Each structure stands twice: as C-alpha cells, then as structure tokens.
Amino acid sequence: MAEITDMTEGGPWALVNNAGIAVSGAFEDVSETDAWAVLESNLLGTARMTRLALPAVRRRGEGRIVQMSSVAGLVAMPLNGWYCAGKHALEALTDALRREIAGSGVQVSLIEPGFIDTPMLTDGLRHLPSNIRYETAYAAMRRLVVTRGPLGPEVVVRTVRKALTVPVPRRRYGIGYEGALGHLARLAPPAPVDLTLRTFLRLNRS
C-alpha cells in the first residue's frame, strides 16, 4: 500500500476486492482448516485490504470501494455453507462500512454474481468430497452448474466498471439469473426457499 501511495501521489482512488476461494461440500465434509482458509481469504483478507486503502481514499474526499460478494451472500446454499458464511459476513461488514462513512465522498458497492465460469467454480466442482450420504446431491450440483451454462467473467468486469464510473453507484449489483433470484429469496419465507433448494440439489433423496 505504501508503494501504491507513492505511485499515485497520495494513494488509490478506488479498491476492488476480487480475491477469493471456495471450498464446496456439506457442513460435515469441510475440515476446520479449509473453513478457516475460506474465511481468511474471502472475509478477513478483504477487510484487511479495505482498512489499508480507506485512509487514502478518505483523504481524496471521493472514491470507490467495490467488494466482490456473491448470490451466496444473499442465500445460504446447501453444500457451500462456509463460502456462504464468508459472503454473508462480507455483506454485513460492507453495509456497516457504507453507513459509517456516508457523507465522506467514498462510495461503497457490493457485486453479487451468480454462477460464473471461472477456475474457482470448476475446481470446486472437481474437488467435491466423497460422502455416500451426499452422493446424489453432489452429482446434482455438478449437473445444475453445467446445465445452467455459467456466464463468463466479462459480465462481472462490465459491472465492476460501471460501479467505478457512474456518478452515483448502486449499493448492490446482482448479476445473472441467480443474482436476481437471490434477492427474491431474501424476501420469501424460509420454508419455500428451503424446499426449493433441497429439491434442486436432490437433497430429499440423500
């Protein structure tokens, strides 16, 4: 951050927190070590970078902080509990930050993609645990992603660019079919959401 401050004569105007990892698997299939790795990268690492960049952005009196969240930050998806936990926490932390620094000139936005065709998604599907109890659900998860035909990363790039360039950015940018459903699911009662997700992932047969 000190090097960036020297290169930019005062520090960054914007920060885009895009780094993250995913460890898929049922709650009982994910080790504590893997769970901590997900939280360290997706939540604590993002918070650390935000804390480092914020003073410089504040001094400019304007700027942008863009956090890469996910539809998983809106809905707790089965077989991705730890990833969802980190993204839910990121959404809460970002909402708190936005409210704390309102009026400073710094605009804060969340990007909430659905399934995006990146190595993180494909690697996660390749390394699903082996557990006979969830074998049917893991197979359904693989088919669901392939059948949906995930969007490419360029749609996320366009959205990030919009959040950085429009005069007044939105607080949240949902991307893709799943992003829209995620916002609807937050308004729905828990029972039908539970049933829908369990049915999609064939957990009722596990």
Provide a quick synopsis of the model.
This protein has helices at residues 2-7, 32-60, 81-100, 119-126, 135-148, 154-165, 176-187, 190-200; strands at 14-17, 63-68, 106-113, 172-175.
Describe the structure.
This protein has about 210 residues and is α/β, with parallel strands linked by helices. It has one domain: NAD(P)-binding Rossmann-like Domain (Rossmann fold), CATH 3.40.50.720. It is about 55% helix and about 10% strand. It has eight helices and four strands; from the N terminus they run αβαβαβαααβαα. It has a four-stranded parallel sheet, sandwiched between helices. The N and C termini lie far apart (about 50 Å). The relative contact order is 0.15. The mean pLDDT is about 90.
Residue runs with pLDDT of under 50 for 5 or more positions: none
CATH architectural label = 3-Layer(aba) Sandwich
Class computed from helices, strands and strand pairing:
alpha/beta
Sequence of strands across the biggest β-sheet: 1-2-3-4
Q: State the domain count.
A: 1
Individual helix count:
8
Distance separating the two termini: 49 Å
Which CATH class is shown? Alpha Beta
